Queue: 2 jobs
Job 1
Amino acid sequence: MEPKLFTPGPLTTSRSVKEAMLVDLGSREPEFTDVVAVVRDELLALAGSSTRDGHEAVIVQGSGTFAIEALLSSAIPSSGRLLVIENGVYGARMLRIAEIHGIPTASLRCPSTRTPDLAALERLLAEDDSITHVAVVHCETTSGILNPVDEIGEIVAAAGRRYLIDAMSSFGAVPLTFPSSGAAAIVSSSNKCIQGVPGFAFVLLTRELLDECEGRARTLTLDLHAQWKGLAANGQFRFTPPTHVLLAFARALEELAAEGGVSARNARYSALQARIATGMKELGFEAIVPTEHQSPILTTFREPESERYSFELFHAALKTRGCAIYPGKLEDTRAFRIGSVGDLTQEDAETLLRAVAQVCAELGIDRPQR
Ligand SMILES: *Cc1c(COP(=O)(O)O)cnc(C)c1O
C-alpha cells in the first residue's frame, strides 16, 4: 500500500495530477509553451497581481532552494546587504546562500518557537543603512510557525528596503499577496501547497526588482533576469524544462481553483491541522509551537522520553499502517513533524490518529502528557 504523506512536501497528490504527466510534449511545441504562459499568469493571480500590474513570474528548474538561490544571487549586489529574519533552518539557509555568493549579511535571530521581535527589526533598519534587502520565511517549515509577513512588510516598506519572502511551504494555502505584504519577491515551488509534483520552483517579483537583476547574476543557470527574458520572448526555457511536471502543475492549479481557491484550501488544511493537534494531544503528544503562531501546514510534536520510543521504529510502524510522518528537531528539543497538507481528507487524519494510538500500545511507548 502506498502510504499517505503527512510531510511538508513532496506531498500526496491527486491521481489526476499524476495522470496529467502521461503525455510527452516537446519543450518548443506551442502545446507546452501555452501551458507555461497560463501557469505564469495564474501564479501572479494567486499573488494578487498580474504582468499588467507590474509583476512577473519566473519559473526555475529544480527544487525550491534553486529559486531562493536564483533570487538572492541575481537581485542583491555585493554593495548591498541582506538582513535575514531567522527562526529556523530555511532562514539559516538563505544566509548561507548569500555568504557563498559574497553578499554581505546580517541576521535578526529568534528561537524557532517564537515570531520575530518587530520593534527590534524597526531599530535594526533605522540603525543600519547598509541593509538593502530583508528576507523572511512565511511558514518556517522547521517548526510549522507562521511569521507575520504583512506586519514585517509594513516595517520594511516604511524603511524603504526591498522585501523578499520565502513562501515555499505556504503559497496557495495561506493568504499572501503583493498588495498585502508589500513584497518585492515571493518564492515557492511546484511540490508544496499547490499540490503538484517536484521539479521546479518560481519567483514572483516586481518589474522593478527584475530590472535590477539584469547583469547582476553570479551564475549562468540561476540568472533570474536571463531566465525571464527567455520566457517572456517566446515562452521557452533556456535549458530543458520539466515538461511533465509543468503539465501536472497546470492540472494542480485547476484543482486548487475547483476546491475554491486559497481560502478553501486554507480551511481544509486548518481543519486537518486542528484535528491532528487535538487528537495527538489526547494521545499524550505535546505540540511545541504556541497555538497563536501555529500554521495550518505542519505541526511539531515533542518526542516521548520513553526508552521504547525511537523515531525509526515509530515511523516504520506508522508507515505499515499507511501513514508517513517526518523527523524534526528544534534547537535542543527532540521532535517529529506531522504535515497537514496535500491531497488529504479528515478521514486520513482519523486513520493517522488511530495508527498512532495502535503503535503506542504495540511498542509500549509512555507519553509525557498521559
Ligand atoms: C521546502 C522548503 C524550501 C525548499 O526546499 P527544497 O528542498 O529545496 O525544495 C525552502 N523553504 C521552505 C520554508 C520550505 O518549506
Job 2
Amino acid sequence: MIRCTAARVDLRALEANFRAVASYLEREARLNRGAGRGPVLPPGIIAVVKANAYGHGARRVAQALEAAGAIMLAVADIEEGVDLRASGVRAPILVFGALSVSDLDGVFDHTLTPTISSPASGAALQAAAEARRTSLHYHLKIDTGMNRLGFRHDNLRRTLPPLLASANLVLDAVHTHFGTADEPGHALFAGQRDRFEQACGVIDELGADPCLRHAANSAALLRDSRVWYDFVRPGLLLYGLVPPPLGSTVPLQPVMSLTSRVVAVKGVRTGECVGYGGRFCAERATTVAVIPAGYADGLDRRLEGRGFVLIRGRRAPIVGGVSMDMLTADVTDIDAVGPGDEVVLLGSQGSEPQQTIDAREMAAWIGTIPYEVLCRLGSRVERKYD
Ligand SMILES: *Cc1c(COP(=O)(O)O)cnc(C)c1O
C-alpha cells in the first residue's frame, strides 16, 4: 500500500550534483593556478547528511555519496552516525554536534570521528579511550565568532594544551563554521576567516602535528575559495539548491520532488468559504481541488494564500487553511481537473519555468529557508528512490 503523497529522491541527480560541485572546485582551482592566487588544489568533499540527509533519507543518500567519492560524511550526532554504520556505510563519519558524556560508546563501537568542541568533552573522550586502551581520531572545533560550539579562538594557548597532550587522542583536523556565509555584505565572514587562520597558527605553535583544516559550508564554498582549505562541507548544494540569496552557475538539480493526487473536486458558490477558519471565501463560482497532503506531511500552514501547486501543468493557488492531512487549491481557471490528477508540490510538471516549484521558492513564500522546507518533510511521506 502506498499513499498518493510521496517524495521521489533522485539519486542520480544527487550524484550529478556531487560531480558538479567537484568539477566546480577543480575548475576554480585551475583558474587560481593560472592567476597565481588562492588555493591551487581542489579540496576534498565532506558530504553533509545530517538530519536524515536534509529529509531525503540518510541511509540511501549516504551510500550514494560514498559511491560518488565523498571523502567523509558528516552527521549532527552520534545516533545519526550509528544509523549510517548500521546501513553499511564504510566511509569516515564526522559528528558535528556536542557530545554528551553518556553516549560516547557509539563513537568507539561504530568508528565515528567526533568533533571536540570543549575541554570537558576532550577530557571525557580521553578517559573513555584510555579505559578502552585504544586511540581515537578527532576533529577540533574552533569558535571564531558564531558563539555556538567550539573552543574560543582567543584563548587557545590556555585551553588547548591539555587536549593536545591527551595520550589517546589524535588530532586529524581543525574546523570552524561561518555564521554569515550566505550574507554577502556581512563583515563577520572575513573576520571569522582571519580568526580561523590565526587560530590555526596558534595550534601549529602549540606543537600539534600539521593538521588538516575545513570551514566552508555551501555558501562559503561558492563565495570564497580562500576558505576551502583541505576539505569543504557542502550540504544544500548536494541536494540541488543554492543557499539564498546567492546565485551560482554550478549546474544543480533538486534531488527531491513531492507529488500527490487530487482526491476530490468541489464546486463552491459565491460567498461560501473553504476550510478551517473560513478565511477563503469565494468571490465567484469557484472550483477547489482537495489534495491529501497537509502540515503533518511538512507543508507549512503559512502556504495558505501564498503558495501554489502544479496541476495539469498550471499553477493553482493554495486557498483555505492547510490542515493536518489536506490542503485545497483553487483550480477554477484550469480546465477539467478531476480526481486522480497528479499534483506537484515540489518539482516540475513541464519544461516552462512556471512549471517548476523548488524548495527555495516554497521557502520564500512562507518566509523561511529551503533547509527548513526539506528537513520538515513528514515521516509518513514515503521516499521513493531512483
Ligand atoms: C549543516 C552544516 C554544514 C552544511 O551546510 P550547508 O549550508 O547545507 O552547505 C556544514 N558545516 C556544518 C558544521 C554544518 O552544521
